[in-house]
Amino acid sequence: MGERPPKDEVSMSLLHSNMLQEAIGSNLPSDCLVHSFKRTFHGFVAKLYENEVQKIAEMAGVVSVFPNQKNEFHTTKSWDFMGFSEQVNRSILENEVIIGVIDSGIWPESHSFNDEGFGPPPAKWKGSCQPSSNFSCNNKIIGAKMYRSDGLFDAKDLKSPRDSIGHGTHVASTAAGGSVSNASLYGLGLGTARGGVPSARIAVYKVCWLDGCWDADILAAFDDAIADGVDVISISIGASVTRHYFRDSIGIGAFHAMRKGILTSTSAGNSGPEFRTLRNFAPWYVSVAASTIDRKFITDVQLGNNRVYQGISINTANSEMFPVIYGGDAPNTTGNFNNSLSRFCTKNSLDPSLVKGKIVLCDELGTGEVPYLAGATGILMQDGDPKDVAVSFPLPASYLDSHDGRSIHSYIKSTRNASATIYKSKEMNDTLAPSVVSFSSRGPNPITPDILKPDITAPGVHIIAAWSPLSSVSRRVGDNRIVAYNILSGTSMACPHVTAAAAYVKSYHPTWSPSAIKSAIMTTAFPMNAETNPEAELAYGAGHLDPLKAINPGLVYDVEPMDYIKFLCGQGYNTSLLQMVTGDNSSCSKAINATVWDLNYPSFALSSTSPKKFISQVFNRVVTNVGLDNSTYKAIVKSPGGLKVQVNPSILSFSSIGEKIFLLLQLKEQLKVLLFLLLWCGMMGYTKLGAQYLCILQ
């Protein structure tokens, strides 16, 4: 985690080799040291056994040693929906802003990345385009690199920055793709596809492969992106489990990016709607939730009795009228499956001789692969889960509610000649938008519940953007549809919207710190409707992204790197560990130790372990004037019954830009709201032998 000391790259690698030799002995395997981080922070990746891990961890100067674990994806009317039209005012510096995208690579031939009209890369750019026989950069995509520390490529992986998955291309074009008219998915979502900052440059760091995105590669990408000179980092990736701040590659990388003046935008995770499901939640980056836009896709199903039922999916063509069968009536008995499994259409549970050439009704949402591989021509799925996001399947499909599912099941049982057809999806207006989608991960922050997370929500549902032609529409076995633009949903899609907003603010205010940009984005967000979002701020944070207002927030809550150091002291980091992290003489003395409520964060949160406890808390904040020289602001507080909120001073008067005013916000009285008890069981021990571990050093 520590800052990189002033050593050359050769001596850094030698230092790491010597450490490994001390732990393992003179017979150090040649492939033991996998990678040394050399450019912006200090650490290495090595193949270690459990006893060797412990020896490394006990060495002086070692902050942490943790397994190289796999991360996963958190997967353009949206800009117009937010009032951020193609004609908004642009800064002349937008083409100087560089967005670093850490993902699955990019498809450089996409029209979204055409560099017509672009000059050479900005003078500050220090990166490069990795040599590859099938990839070249241009003046739009100014840098591209790939990372695979263990060298274990899948046979279908492309050993270049080229994207074979589609995710990275989609994310990059959402953030900074150029305008492309008449983009659609087989006519669905027809319109102009564009990124939020179409003149910005893109630097690509490919860390995701067919088997996932590994910690060692993510850290190497951060190391390069920081040194290369990017202005904003976008990473729509996250762990599958909760990890502490400095045992998480994204938290580590983003911390160093913050210290170098770079804001990182991350996806909150796709594990909602349960509480405490956030995957990216450190205070020094932006955590983005996903919300709907005013577009939804409806897929009608017509039965042989002419009854029509309405489900959801992204279905690109009409099916013929086919026989329809219930999955529970087609168990694969030769594989020892019964109807209690086949009704859910679980793997290998369907008898191909019974479902071939038919539409199958399943009692659970699935990927569609199982019915397809069994020879089905379509799939109907029904359950009681929320129906707020439509996805693509490898065969005609519709996802229905339980009531309609039972009606279709009754029809199947009522006749020997049951049949159905599934129509192409229709685009309709979603009048409830924006609302936080059910899959978006909710707070509270699982490590520091008094830091509100997620920070903000942005469009993440039914987003159309550029796609890799090497990946099918649904990314499922049997789907051979190849497209230039695809429709996806996820916090992965919400993250680049905030990335673009940060780049937009940066283009107007190039000297602002990462925290000032983050504050501007959060404090100008527009309020969400708590009635349609019952988890309220634990779902949407400060509110919904409003990029146009973010360039003129008036006031910002600025946070210096040292403020995060004080925060870490208050979180229990001792002086020796803190100095290993910072690489300086920072000390967790009483003078520097600060509570979480003193961090100059743009939002205020307070947790309690008892719903009957009397609450009183003071938050210390400093606001900086970034608006007009002579300006006055008045605090207007709306609080629920039983909660008293006081702001002192209640009127802020400024005489110059850059002037700062200290203020206090006090919460008092009995909280008559739902409170949460945080249960944290700590990290699990290491169990793998001979696995890769990441060692983070001073």
Keywords:
alpha/beta, eight-stranded mixed sheet, seven-stranded parallel sheet, 16 helices, 21% helix
Give a description of the structure.
This protein is α/β, with parallel strands linked by helices and 698 residues long. The protein is 21% helix and 24% strand. The chain is built from 16 helices and 33 strands. Strands 16, 17, 18, 19, 20, 21, 22 and 23 form an eight-stranded mixed β-sheet that branches. Strands 6-9-5-12-14-15-24 form a seven-stranded parallel β-sheet, sandwiched between helices. A hairpin with a 4-residue loop joins strand 16 and strand 17. Helix 1 (9-24) packs across helix 2 and helix 11 packs across helix 12 (514-523). It is globular. It starts with 8 loop residues before the first helix and ends with a strand. The relative contact order is 0.14. Residues 670-691 have low confidence and may be disordered.
**Terminal-residue CA separation:** 7 Å
Q: What is the share of helical residues?
A: 10-25%
Structural class from helices and strands? alpha/beta
Quaternary structure of the protein = single chain
Low-confidence stretches: 670-691
Given the C-alpha coordinates, what overall shape results? globular
Whole-number mean pLDDT = 88
Number of helices: 16
Largest sheet: 8 strands, mixed
Q: List how many beta strands DSSP finds.
A: 33
Rg over CA atoms, rounded to whole Å, is 26 Å
- The percent range for strand residues is 15-25%
